[in-house]
Structures are given as C-alpha cells and as structure tokens.
Amino acid sequence: MPGHRRPGRAATGRRATAVTTALLTLLALLLTGCSGGGANIAKNGPVRLTFWSALRGSQEVVDEFNRTHTDVKVDYAQVPSGEQGGWAKLSNAARAGNAPDVATIEYPQLPGFTIDGVPRDISELLPGSVRRKILPQALDLTTFDGRTYAVPVDIEPMVFLYRKDIFTKNRIPVPKTWAEFERSARKLKKAEPRSRIASLFTTGGTLYLAAYAWQAGGQWYDTSADTWRVSMDDAPTRKVARYWQGLKDDDLVRVEPGSSQQWRAHLRSGETAGYLAGAWAAGSMMASTPDGKGKWAIAPVPQWDAAKPKVSTQGGSTFMVTKDSDHPEEAMEFISWMVTSPDALRAKLSSGVSSAFPSVPALVPVARKEMDTSYFSGQDIFGLFDEQAKLIDPSWKWGPRMVSTTTSGDDGLAKAGAGSGSVLEALRDAQSRTMPDLKSLGLSVTTR
What we know:
Blueprint: H1 14-35, H2 38-42, E1 47-53, H3 58-68, E2 72-78, H4 86-95, E3 102-106, H5 110-115, H6 128-131, H7 136-140, E4 143-144, E5 147-148, E6 151-152, E7 158-163, H8 164-169, H9 178-191, E8 199-201, H10 205-216, E9 221-224, E10 227-230, H11 235-249, E11 254-256, H12 261-269, E12 274-278, H13 281-288, E13 296-300, E14 317-321, H14 328-340, H15 342-349, H16 364-370, H17 381-389, H18 402-417, H19 423-440, E15 445-447
Parallel strand pairs: 1-2, 1-3, 8-11, 10-15
Antiparallel strand pairs: 3-14, 4-5, 6-14, 7-12, 7-13, 9-10
C-alpha cells in the first residue's frame, strides 16, 4: 500500500517501487510536519478543511462541528454515491492533486483507492483513544499490512428483515439456519403461491453473494509473499452458489434487480416477504415502505452452523484523510469527532431515519434513543445489531478492483436470471475478467 510495502508488486518493478515508496514516505512525513502546526495556522484564522461525502446527514454533521469548533472549520460538498459517479470524481481529483482533505469511501473500494495512493497512511495519526473505541472487525477492514488508511464510521452486520404478519399467519418459522430458510421458503410458497421469501439480485447481487460467501468461510482475496491470491469459487463459495442456484431453480426466491421499483413493489405488496441485508436496510425500509409499519421485524441472519455462528457485513463506509490534504492532523481531529462524538451521531440522525450501525459500540445507546422503532413494533433493533456485529468474521479481505469485479459478476447473474448461465458461472466469469485488471496494475496475481 502507498508509503509501505504493497502486496503483490511484480519482482521486475520492485526496485522502482522501492524508490517511489521511499519518496512517498518522505513526502508524507514532510506534509505531516508542515501541517502539524494547527496552533500556528490558527493565529491567522481557523484551518479550513474540505469534506466530500454522499452520506445522508453530512451537512448537519458539518454544521454541528463548525458550531462547536473554533480552530478548524469544514466546507462540505455533497457528491454522488459511488456507483453514480462519486468514486470517479474522487479518483480524478486525486490524479489532479486536488482531492479534498477528507472523503468518504465504502469498504469494498478502499483497497483499490489505497493502491492508487489516494488515502494517507493514518497509522500514526489515528489517536489510540479513538482506535480503542472502534469495533476491531471494522478497523481490520481499513488496515492493510498493519497500516491503517481510513476510519470506519459504520459497519453493517447482515440481518434478515421479514414480514412478521405473513410468517405468523401462515405459521412459518423464522429461520435460524440456511436449511430452515429453504424449508420456510417452501412453506411460504405453498401457503401463498404469489409470495417468495427473498430475492436473488441480478444487479448489485455480486456484493450480496460476497456477504454470503464471507459468512460461509469463503475468502475471495488474500495476500501471500507479495502476491494477491484470488478465489471466487473456493469450497465455501461453491456451497453458497449451489444453495442459491437451488432456491432459484425451485422458484423459491425472486430473481430481480436490486433496489429496483419492481423489487420495492414486491416488498410493499408482500409478494416478497423477506430481505437479507445490512443493518442500514432497516432505516431504508422505514423511509421507502412506510405502509409496512407494524408488519416487519428483524432477525439474525440464518447460519450454516448454529453452534458456530458467523456474520458478514453488507454495506458500510469509512472516512479517509487524502494524500492531498495540507492539514492531516486537523482532518483527523474532524474525523475522530464524527466517528466518536454523540453530538455528531445526533446531528446525523436529525436529517432523517438511519439505522446504520456505528463503528463505535459505545454510541449504540445514542442511536437507540434517537430512533423511533415503532415501525418494527418497538423491537430493540440496535440491540440485535450490536449482538450480530460482535459475530462478524474478521478473516475477509476485499480486492483491489471491486467495481470491475462486481460489474462482471452482475453481468453473469443477469444471464443466470435469464436461464443462460448459473450463479457459480457468474462468479467464475467475474474472477476471470478481474484478473487482467489486477495484472494491469503491476500486481503479482494468482488463483487458488
């Protein structure tokens, strides 16, 4: 990674890489030294930071920070969400040398941005007092080769949202295992032939399959001896692919684009009676399907082995200090406040409904107090999220080019949905199409 040994550099480029790395390290030290005098800068007025984010509530958070801080002020610019151009905007700005001081990036994209040198190595900048407050599994996802490149703001353990009224009426058990999930799916289809228990997404579906594979013990990416090892068809992933292929072939799940109007309509009508997603989805459901109030509940995600529960994540964001920031210490002060302060979380929640699970577990009582859970009949959803977050398996790594990987996977899932391929073939095709992208970065890459 930038400023330190990058996993996977080809041997022929190591001498040039070593020189570049040394220069980047020296530059980072010089920038940190030049910008470390927040008190000196404050003599001429407050330090001004730029902050780019697509997260809801960011303006309210910035307003609260500016209201309560005098030496540092933040100028906020809303950017499109990643898939709608935010990632490209940040990449282009970094290439031009004018990235903002602070930017938001999702977990799957962070390794790629780190390889491209966009975030600053914040291992020494991140205060120990902040580090200790963050859920370790969240911090693991922002740390590569022992160096930290971003601060998690939320982490989204996967859960199962389901139509409690439909399950209760038809005496369908809420599944605790994936075997029970299939049995419940069959019982639901028999009781209400037009309803299905969940959806297999043809757009955005690759990231959902990643979460399922992660929970099953899969590892699509890892590094060994300076080499990236890729395996999107390892044994756990094959098990997951066969499972979802079986649900599809037996017409037990819907096959449709994720986040589409079609999918939303099925949720509203009860024709889709369940939704497997990250904790954030509870707030999204409340906002987009208000007539579902009192009908929905949330349960832990089904397990492969109930005696050894594992949870993966689906969604979640981090804050980075970019390499272009002239004020990294002040940028870290702002980030630390956003991640750990109850006032920051309250400001964020004041903008509307959000069930994003904070990366700092100590903030759970704040989230619980601020959120009206009458939609879920008063269920303590944040208590459930807290329990599930502690079960997140820390072994997962995201790859260097997840946008390319997921685009290729979604293409294959669309074919599988149309009957001209399979779920496993979609993942294998995504792997084969990703390999040239990784090699074009100068990385040493192999398959497992």
